Automatic annotation (TrEMBL):
<comment type="subunit">
    <text>Homodimer.</text>
</comment>
<dbReference type="InterPro" id="IPR001754">
    <property type="entry name" value="OMPdeCOase_dom"/>
</dbReference>
<dbReference type="InterPro" id="IPR011060">
    <property type="entry name" value="RibuloseP-bd_barrel"/>
</dbReference>
<comment type="similarity">
    <text>Belongs to the OMP decarboxylase family. Type 1 subfamily.</text>
</comment>
<feature type="binding site">
    <location>
        <position position="123"/>
    </location>
    <ligand>
        <name>substrate</name>
    </ligand>
</feature>
<keyword id="KW-0210">Decarboxylase</keyword>
<keyword id="KW-0665">Pyrimidine biosynthesis</keyword>
<feature type="active site" description="Proton donor">
    <location>
        <position position="65"/>
    </location>
</feature>
<protein>
    <recommendedName>
        <fullName>Orotidine 5'-phosphate decarboxylase</fullName>
        <ecNumber>4.1.1.23</ecNumber>
    </recommendedName>
</protein>
<dbReference type="InterPro" id="IPR047596">
    <property type="entry name" value="OMPdecase_bac"/>
</dbReference>
<dbReference type="InterPro" id="IPR013785">
    <property type="entry name" value="Aldolase_TIM"/>
</dbReference>
<feature type="binding site">
    <location>
        <begin position="63"/>
        <end position="72"/>
    </location>
    <ligand>
        <name>substrate</name>
    </ligand>
</feature>
<feature type="binding site">
    <location>
        <position position="214"/>
    </location>
    <ligand>
        <name>substrate</name>
    </ligand>
</feature>
<dbReference type="InterPro" id="IPR014732">
    <property type="entry name" value="OMPdecase"/>
</dbReference>
<comment type="pathway">
    <text>Pyrimidine metabolism; UMP biosynthesis via de novo pathway; UMP from orotate: step 2/2.</text>
</comment>
<comment type="function">
    <text>Catalyzes the decarboxylation of orotidine 5'-monophosphate (OMP) to uridine 5'-monophosphate (UMP).</text>
</comment>
<dbReference type="InterPro" id="IPR018089">
    <property type="entry name" value="OMPdecase_AS"/>
</dbReference>
């Protein structure tokens, strides 16, 4: 999908109702950011909310992290493409057959296909927590392995921590899109995030898109918080 927005910021609209999500979108500017609809908001507000955001001029990242049998995931990403979203994602740990099925399913959308992104290891996960799930590899190696598989299956990029971005760009190439949540401006609360970096650190490590929720949406003035982050990135 051809994009009109040069900003790297994707604001996570993590709300439990349509009115709150649209009120936040109304305080933002589609020329300065994209927006992300995740599991909570989509479960409560559904496709209508996604269409409403698209109609308001926002490029939408549908962050549902699909993980299922290949046929189901292929159908799900096609449904997302029909909604007009700019980006959609699947769990890279769902396997290569699943990722290839998703990638193949989007071919019929040609140039208007959404970016297809694989989730590697969640930014809330520590190395110890990953090991406890039975993954024997060190966390960074696991991220690189999943990203390499995502690339070979035809995905456009991955979700990872910005801490892994520099290495991933080396391994997967500069065109492979890196979407990085776990972004925390200096002094802001990490909350449940564990592998964090500041906005300017993330960009300097090679992140293409920064997913930012609470540091913007919980700010007294979300638009000002967004503008301050953009200024920090621009080095102003
Ligand atoms: O690895 C991941 C994948 C997705 N997320 C999502 O990003 C936002 C982050 O919100 P903050 O308030 O800035 O922490 C949230 O919607 C997560 O579901 C992630 O954090 N890490």
């Amino acid at each position: 999908m051809h994009s009109q927005v040069s900003s790297p910021i994707i604001v996570a609209l993590d709300y439990d109702n349509t009115d709150a999500a649209l009120a936040m979108a109304g305080q933002l500017d589609p020329a300065l950011c994209r927006v992300k609809v995740g599991k909570e908001l989509f479960t409560i507000a559904g496709p209508e909310l996604v269409r409403a955001l698209v109609e308001r001029g926002f490029e939408v990242f549908l962050d549902l992290k699909f993980h299922d049998i290949p046929n189901t995931v292929a159908s799900a990403v096609k449904a997302a493409a029909r909604l007009g979203v700019w980006m959609v994602n699947v769990h890279a740990s769902g396997g290569e057959r699943m990722m290839s099925a998703a990638s193949d399913a989007l071919k019929e959308f040609g140039d208007s296909k959404p970016l297809l992104i694989g989730v590697t290891v969640l930014t809330s996960t520590t190395p110890e927590e990953l090991a406890a799930t039975g993954v024997a590899k060190p966390l960074k190696e696991q991220v690189i392995d999943l990203a390499s598989k995502a690339k070979s299956c035809g995905l456009d990029g991955v979700v990872c921590s910005a801490r892994e971005a520099q290495e991933l760009k080396k391994v997967c190439g500069s065109d492979f899109v890196l979407v990085t949540p776990g972004i925390r401006p200096t002094g802001s609360d990490a909350g449940d995030q564990r592998r964090t970096l500041t906005p300017s650190e993330a960009i300097s490590q090679g992140a293409d898109y920064l997913v930012i929720g609470r540091p913007i949406t919980a700010a007294a003035n979300p638009l000002r918080a967004l503008q301050e982050i953009l200024s920090e990135i621009a080095g102003k």
